[in-house]
Amino acid sequence: MDNGKEDIDYPGEIIEAVDREEQERRSIQEYIFQLEEAKDTATEQVKAQEEDLQETVSLLQATLESTADGILVIDLAGRIVSYNQKFAKMWRLPDEVLKSHDDARALGWLSQQLKNPQVFLHRVKELYERPHEQSLDILEFIDGRIFERFTQAQYLGDRIVGRVWSFRDITERRRVEEVLKQSEQRLKLALSAANRGWYDVNVQTGEAMVSEEYARMLGYEPEKFSETADRCIARLHPDDREAVATAYHAYLKGELPEYRIEFRQQTKSGDWLWTLSMGSIVEWDADGKPRRMLGTHTDISQRKRVEEALRESERQLAQLIDFLPDAMFAIDRQGKIIIWNRAIEEMTGVKADSILNEDGHAYTIPFYGIRRPALIDLALANDPDIEKKYLFIKREGDILEAEAEVILKGENRLLYAKARPLYDSQGNVIGAVEAIRDITERQQAEEERAKLEARMREVQKLESLGVLAGGIAHDFNNLLMGIMGNADLAQLSLSPASPAIPYLQEITRASQRAADLCNQMLAYSGKGRFLVRRYNLSEIVREMARMLEVSISKKAMLNYRLADALPAVEADATQLRQIIMNLIINASEALNDQNGVITLSTSVMDCDRRYLSESYLDDNLAEGRYVFLKVSDSGAGIDEETRQRIFDPFFTTKFTGRGLGLAAVLGIVRGHRGAIRVASEPDRGTTFTILLPAVLSSREEMTTDAVLCPTPLQGGTVLLVDDDPGVRQVGVRMLRSLGFSVLTAADGQQALELVQAQGDDIDCVLLDLTMPRMGGEETFVKLRALRSNIPVILSSGYNEQDVVQHFYRGGLAGFIQKPYSLTKLREILSEALSLRKH
Questions:
Q1: In this structure, how many other beta carbons lie within 10 angstroms of the beta carbon of residue 34?
Q2: Which of the four pLDDT bands, split at 50, 70 and 90, describes residue 31?
Q3: Would you call 269 exposed, middle or buried from its count of C-beta atoms within 10 A (0-12, 13-18, 19+)?
Q4: How high is the pLDDT of residue 673?
Q5: Measured in whole angstroms, how far is the alpha carbon of residue 246 from the centre of its chain?
Q6: What distance in Å separates the CA atoms of residue 242 and residue 232, rounded to the nearest whole number?
Q7: Which of 74, 127, 456, 524 has its CA 20 to 30 A from that of 299?
Q8: Which of 259, 302, 263 is CA-nearest to residue 282?
């Protein structure tokens, strides 16, 4: 006993059992603690995975929302799994239909908007029954819209879990394509020089002529190749013959507006050549049946290969992002590139493997060559400095649109881009995405169409004004004929001392000035070429030097820069001088009586189509060597509005001007198959450049006129044929004053009757060109058949070059242009009668 207590002595076994129990208890508690820690860790990992999954889903959904296409995803059970707002907006689906996730209900709503709903539903059913099949087709809406639809299976690993549908609105693209197609149809045959190979076939006999390029395209040597319709048919691929024959005969019957078809034909080596054939009937026989057809063959094998490659590329699309047709990339919040799709690889030439996970604005290097902020950065934060770098920029909500010019693969391109932020499931911005589309060709096509329409309007205007000016000049020359002829006759009837003589002489001079004005109008109308020979342009200028110096302002200094040993030009010397004089006077007046310099230069240059197309009123001139005349002044220059009208007849900025100088220059240059370029800016002077085709042959062919000894007029009988009573009246008086007896006819039919009745008595015929019932050309042919020995002098208000081209068979004894003087009439009659005796 100790302190009144009894000590208990426990057996050792009990103590050991208690210790073991305590240790087990502690082990259990420790195990429980470990389980709790493991559970917490697992919970955190699951939560992290869920957040990663939500972020991925958000990224994909945001990506879908950024594309310009409408996207719809359907699972195997026919439920709507996902779609973007573009799809809902394009198809105008109500929210209750979308929220139902019922594909069948959506299909019912979609089909009622289409022109062919049953075809649409049948095709959808087929594709659901064939889960592996891809499809690309066109949908036409009742309201006129047109969609392009593409679909393929959606895979999860190797397993198909649904189907992805993509819709693109191509309504505007189809409209532009149709406009371009119409423009191409109007120009295709007119610009035959640009086609690969042409053919000219007699559709009744099958005989054909073809170009060298046509033969080479088929692998034949041009000199050993001959073509017929039967040989062409024999070369056709068996699968194409029926279609070609159908199109050809339908066009000949008038059932098709044009002949245009693609087919395969066999080359000399046995290969099949894809060919685009276009043609047009240009000649009919007396029964109105087609006789002659002109057309072109173009090798489109490369295009066919490209088309096949594109189709193959479309079949190989496997992933949703790569499936999108627009170039696309995305960045995270730190600017690191996380998406770089196949389309942008093709656009920039930069592969995804080399740029993914790059940061620091690496995505702008392929576009701008440097690292710099771009549209995608504006989706994350506003920056006015970035916005200034774009040609066009617009913000609608959180979506940005912009256009920019960049250099891609060495070419200037116009790009359209859309960008927007990427959000996670909580609405936090986690990055941004940008979709890019190259719209260069569309923009160029629209600009080219606008230029083409403006050019066609200008050509039509000039041609209309030319016809008007030529017609006025012709009729006015007939009126002047009466004035000048009667003035000459009046002078003959008066004594040289008569006080009326000066007045009559002044009438003659005024009439001659009016005739000169008519000649300018004829020059503008393109009917002003007279005697065409080969000339050195520098020599023409040197011969005119003194005349030019006295024609300009005394305050103007005239400098010459004339090239020696220029190639010759085929032209009318008188009209060349008129061009030079008009331009020099125009330059002098541009100095506005101030001190200044006028520079006149000549040289030669090689011109390509691009250079020639920039000339005023491009006439599709051929490339090659051109001699040029350049007239520059240091005057006030011309503003753009005036420059657009300087070649219009009767347009002038001068108080006393007639507005025909530059109009005549344009007509003369166009008549010589040349071109005009004008360069001017206000206060910096003006330069006119005249381009004329150079004669490539080094051998100068000098033309000499036969010298005939004029025959003194000894009377005789002249048949005067003219539909204008005034011209006939004064003509009779003038001929009688020269000692001739005169017979008159108002048209060709009367003239023939007189020749048949009195042909032996007629010594010469003075024949008008333009008459009713029977014109001068037909009358001339029949006169030659009746009496080939009677000299025929042609008379017209038009000039000689424009008129005699109708008389390609020759045989005219002479030409006299109205109005003509008594002296000129005497000279031409003397020459004609000399020819008869020779």
A1: 10
A2: low
A3: exposed
A4: 85
A5: 31
A6: 13
A7: 456
A8: 259
Q: What is the reported pLDDT for 1?
A: 43
Cα separations (Å) of 132 from 91, 163, 324, 574? Answer: 25, 9, 19, 79
Q: Let me know: does 695 contact 568? Beta carbons within 8 Å.
A: yes
Backbone angles phi, psi at 464, to 5 degrees: -65, -45
Query: What per-residue confidence (pLDDT) applies to 320?
Result: 64
- pLDDT-derived band at 466 (thresholds 50, 70, 90) equals low
Which residues is 793 bridged to in the sheet?
Answer: 766, 814
Mean of per-residue pLDDT scores for the chain: 80
Closest to 769 measured CA to CA, from 802, 809, 796: 796
Task: Return d(Cα 22, Cα 20) in angstroms, integer.
Answer: 5
CA distances from 458 to 109, 454, 614, 633, 687 (A): 51, 6, 14, 27, 22
Handedness of CA 241, 244, 245, 246 (dihedral sign): positive
In this structure, the number of other CB atoms found within 10 A of the CB of residue 13 comes to 8
CA–CA separation, 603 vs 565, rounded Å? Answer: 9
The b/e string for 589-611 (b: 16+ C-beta within 10 A; e otherwise) is bbbeeeebebbbbbbbeebeeeb
Residue 266's pLDDT is 94
Gap between the Cα atoms of 661 and 688, Å rounded: 13
pLDDT band at residue 532 using 50, 70 and 90 as cut-offs? confident
At residue 705, the pLDDT reads 37
Q: How confident is the model at residue 497 (pLDDT cuts 50, 70, 90)?
A: confident
What pLDDT, on a 0 to 100 scale, did the predictor assign at position 346? Answer: 86
Which of these, 82, 81, 91, 84, lies nearest to 64 by C-alpha position? 84
pLDDT at residue 409, rounded to an integer: 79
- Do 591 and 555 contact (CB within 8 A), yes or no? yes
Q: How many residues does the chain have?
A: 838
